[in-house]
């Protein structure tokens, strides 16, 4: 059965379908929470609270096709709440990118590079490139206009290009010095 049909059954009260939908999204939920919260315990708390809240409120979801957007929005709010309770700034550090990249060194390079971006740019890059969400979905999740999402993506791409060019030039210098 496809994801949207499972969501429809979950909305109608089918607990097994709800569990399947959550299981399908658990890696995405972990990546998003880990990008906002540093601690795995905090991530687990945020995800658990998100699951409870979404289970209680699933009957209010009018469009099953937006379930992922809806639950990610709840998760982000829970993560922010945990950060506020702990009096933290929301760092988008230690982004887990294993979905897209298998090489450990590439993961570290990408994490380090993303950490050089401002938080608002990291948010959209993570959601767009790592979670494969659309501009509209990101707009809904972050409560910002679609144009803002597009401009942040553009600014992030520009900054990433500058950072990566600089890194590659520096690595070329080291390689030619050893010759």
From TrEMBL:
Q: Which residues form the HTH luxR-type domain?
A: 132-159
GO biological process: any one?
DNA-templated transcription initiation
Which SUPFAM superfamilies does UniProt cross-reference here? Answer: Sigma2 domain of RNA polymerase sigma factors, Sigma3 and sigma4 domains of RNA polymerase sigma factors
PROSITE patterns according to UniProt? HTH_LUXR_1 (PS00622)
Coiled-coil features, chain-numbered ranges? none
Q: Recorded GO terms, molecular function? A: DNA binding; sigma factor activity
Keywords attached to this entry = Sigma factor, Transcription, Transcription regulation
Q: Gene3D superfamilies, from UniProt?
A: 1.10.1740.10, Winged helix-like DNA-binding domain superfamily/Winged helix DNA-binding domain
Tell me its family. Answer: Belongs to the sigma-70 factor family. ECF subfamily.
Q: What is this protein called?
A: RNA polymerase, sigma subunit, SigV
| Biological source species | Clostridium frigidicarnis
Organism placement in taxonomy: Bacteria, Bacillati, Bacillota, Clostridia, Eubacteriales
